[in-house]
Specification:
Elements: H1 2-29, H2 61-71, H3 74-93, E1 102-106, H4 112-119, E2 124-129, E3 137-139, E4 152-157, H5 166-176, E5 177-188, H6 192-201, E6 205-215, E7 218-227
Parallel strand pairs: 1-2, 1-4, 2-3, 4-5
Antiparallel strand pairs: 5-7, 6-7
Helix pairs in contact: 3-4
The structure holds 2-acetamido-2-deoxy-beta-D-glucopyranose (2 copies).
Keywords: Membrane, Transmembrane, Transmembrane helix
Protein name: Methyltransferase type 11 domain-containing protein
InterPro entries: Methyltransf_11, SAM-dependent_MTases_sf
């Protein structure tokens, strides 16, 4: 009896090994579907994709419908408007932002600031966030931006406050902005000492101005810095 059980168990383990090996071989043989972008990237000079899959389009009809609904809500429009009036209109008045500026919005969330900039006529706006919201915001780690040095005229973020590594976050904004370009951040409303602390994170920039603003219903301080001409 014992011998029979032993033999049965041994046979069972042989079968198990055979099944496991087969699955393993199948996994080896089955290469992932090659993924060629069906449409060309919008700004190929600005990014180095980690894989060819990154450009695979994910925009489909339901998403399009969802966006149309979202963008027609009063909440969306008031938030977009608040970015325009609190941050971007002043930047235009300062002569820093123009329609031909290349602007990067870091940690852009759902893309209010991207919509505000595009809506005002800025032609080259890029929004990134850990979780993408196509078509306004693409996925990228703010601590490791997939853009060349000096690719933008202006980098903006309203989320420096929430950054895991604020110094790294700031350094990446500076790196992707051209020498003499601008870094603009909106942080929770604060006084001069805290403004200085924020500016200190931007090691290659100097303070230009700050102002208290209301952004998406919150009191915030908008800080404008200019990156050094020679870095
Ligand atoms: C920027 O573009 C918008 C939309 O095309 C236009 O209405 C506006 O006049 C432009 N601004 C400047 C300063 O050219
Ligand atoms: C902005 O608000 C903070 C806190 O309320 C205040 O300390 C600071 O003086 C204000 N800054 C300006 C420029 O009004």
């Amino acid at each position: 009896m014992d011998r029979e059980i032993e033999r049965f168990l041994r046979r069972l383990s042989f079968v198990a090994i055979a099944i496991a090996s087969t699955i393993l071989i199948l996994l080896f043989l089955q290469t992932p579907d090659t993924c060629i972008p069906s449409d060309a990237p919008l700004k190929p000079h600005l990014r180095f994709p980690k894989s060819t899959c990154e450009f695979a389009t994910r925009v489909h009809a339901p998403l399009h419908k969802k966006n149309e609904r979202l963008w027609s809500t009063r909440d969306w429009n008031s938030k977009v408007k608040s970015f325009s009036s609190a941050v971007f209109l002043p930047l235009r008045r300062f002569g820093i932002l123009a329609n031909n500026s290349k602007v990067l919005c870091v940690s852009a969330g759902a893309g209010y600031e991207v919509a505000a900039l595009s809506g005002s006529g800025v032609e080259d706006v890029t929004g990134v966030e850990l979780i993408d919201s196509p078509p306004l915001v693409q996925r990228a780690d703010p601590h490791n931006l997939p853009f060349f040095d000096g690719a933008f005229d202006i980098a903006f973020s309203a989320r420096l406050d929430e950054a895991l590594f604020p110094a790294r976050f700031a350094a990446e904004m500076e790196r992707t902005v051209k020498p003499g370009g601008s870094c603009v951040v909106a942080v929770a409303e604060c006084g001069d000492d805290e403004v200085r602390e924020v500016v200190d994170l931007f090691r290659k920039s100097r303070f230009v101005s700050s102002s208290n603003v209301t952004l998406v219903g919150m009191r915030m301080t908008s800080i404008l810095m200019r990156t050094n001409k020679s870095s």
